[in-house]
Each structure stands twice: as structure tokens, then as C-alpha cells.
Amino acid sequence: LFLNCFHVFQLRQFLILYNSLTEVCFNSCVYSLNGRSLITDERQCVARCVEKNIRGNERILATILRMDVLDDQGFRLDGRRANELRQMRCHVGAVAEGDGSAYLEQGLTEVLAVVYGPTEGGRVRTRADRAVVECRVVDRNATPADRRPQEYAQLLKKVFETVVIGAHYPNSKIFIVCEVIANEGGLLATCINACSMALMHAGVPMLDFVAACSLTCYNDQPLLDVNHQEEVVAQLPRMTLALLVHDKTVALSELSCRAHADLVEAMLEQGKQGCMQVWNVLDKQLRAQFSSIIRAQHVADHV
């Protein structure tokens, strides 16, 4: 009920902003009503007006949200506690293509990961001693100037090259495609979790399952599982931590900006606990789904 009211409030505020912005820019820029379309000067003026007002509203909203990210009772903007994760839902074998796939919802962030391979290298340069891992992140909502999909693909490659036991598949490649369906914060962590499940579904041997969690810090208080308001609008520092769940080895630690060493240490400790929370949630759902797959296969074998 709280989330529904919050979303209605967000929609109402967006419509108010949209209508006021339309009125302001129309009155400031449109002076010729002789034609159906805007003339060149009017279009340029409207573009400048919209950009200026949006940037101004973003700065105001960021200042307000920084004041209200965590209220006096310890609740965040979406009603969660500081160490509380968003709701998660996963499904392995989500698509028929590829050798393994996994769909993951983490809050309102949705990701689909598909694994192809191990297969022969083809045009990709392979290694004689181990398999080569290649990753690609597809975000159709990203702008051409946005380099994050390429950066995230390189980080995924870095993580899974060290986790996948590639020595079992020399002169071969493993190709991972991670498609972003919706991004409402914590995207890199969601991609890592989805890729781990897809590799597991494909039967690719790994040293351990990699669980990831995003976190930020507000007034020296670490906040787990960052949402869009905290990550983008409030512009708080963000860390993504990936952990091998059984031996507690850090596979990736990515920080969006500089931070004090004491703050980073506190975020790392809280992030490890968050990764284990993510693993506990996914472990229960994966066990239930794999049990269903095994039972279905057992029935099919005896028909």
C-alpha cells in the first residue's frame, strides 16, 4: 500500500512538472502562431528552456532527497530499513535460446542473462590452456553517449574470468549476454547475479557462486541495495560488491567516486552482509526451481 501511494505521488509530481514546464517554455519561446510547426529559433529556444529547467529541478530534487534519504525513524524513501534488500524474484531457463539463461527482478530493476557455450572459438582469439569469457551488456534505453554498458561488460568479464573454471574447456569461448529490461538502480549487481545463475543453469563449472549487492552511504550510515532515487537523483556515492559466497572472497569492488578509507571499510563490511542476504534469497528460489526441473525430468524419463 505504501509503495502504491508512493508511485501515485511520483506520477502526480511528474505531471505537475510536465504541465508547468510546457507552459513556461511555450510562453517564453513561442511567438509566431502562423504555422503548425515551430520555426528554427523557437525550437532552439524550447530545447534550451527544457534543458535548463530539467537541470534546475534535478538539482533541487537532489538537495531535497539528500535531506530525506533516511528519516528519523530509520526508513528510506521506499519504506525500507538501511540494511533491507528490495524484493527479488528469479527464474532460470527463462528463454529457450542459449545453453543457459536466467531472469532476475531486483526491485524494479529487471535483467535477462543468456549464456552461449562453451563452444569453439571461431573468430574470437582463444587460449590453449583455458576458455575465454566474453560479455556483452545490452541496454536499449541507454543513449549512444552512455558508456556504462561497455564498462559493465568489462567488469562482468573481469569477474567471471576468475570464477569460471576455464581449464576444463581449452581453445573455446563462453559468451554471456546480459539484456537490461528495466533499470531502477543497482544495475551492475543485478547483472552479476543474473549471469551467475545463467552460468549455473548452463552447467558451466565455477569456483563458487558470485552474489553481488549495491550499497551507498548517507550520514556515515551504509544503505544496502540502492534504488534509482538514491543512486541517480540524490547522487549519493555508490559501491557494487561481488562476493564468492562460500569462502567470502571479494570478486569485485567498484566505487563510483572517492571516499574516505574508514567509510569504504564500513561499506565493505556491510556489503558483504548484503551479498550473503542476496545469496540466501536466491539459494531458496534456485533450489525450489531446480528441484522442479529434476522432478519433471524424472517423470519424463519414466513415461
From TrEMBL:
One of its GO terms (molecular function) is RNA binding. GO terms for cellular component: cytoplasmic exosome (RNase complex); nuclear exosome (RNase complex); nucleolus. Gene3D superfamilies: GHMP Kinase, N-terminal domain, Mitochondrial import inner membrane translocase subunit tim13 like domains. SUPFAM superfamilies: Ribonuclease PH domain 2-like, Ribosomal protein S5 domain 2-like, Tim10-like. Signal peptide: none annotated. Residues 84-205, 208-274 form the Exoribonuclease phosphorolytic domain. One of its GO terms (biological process) is nuclear mRNA surveillance. InterPro entries: ExoRNase_PH_dom1, ExoRNase_PH_dom2, ExoRNase_PH_dom2_sf, PNPase/RNase_PH_dom_sf, Ribosomal_Su5_D2-typ_SF, RNase_PH, Tim10-like, Tim10-like_dom_sf. Residues 10-62 form the Tim10-like domain. Belongs to the RNase PH family. This is Exosome complex component RRP41. It comes from Trichinella britovi.
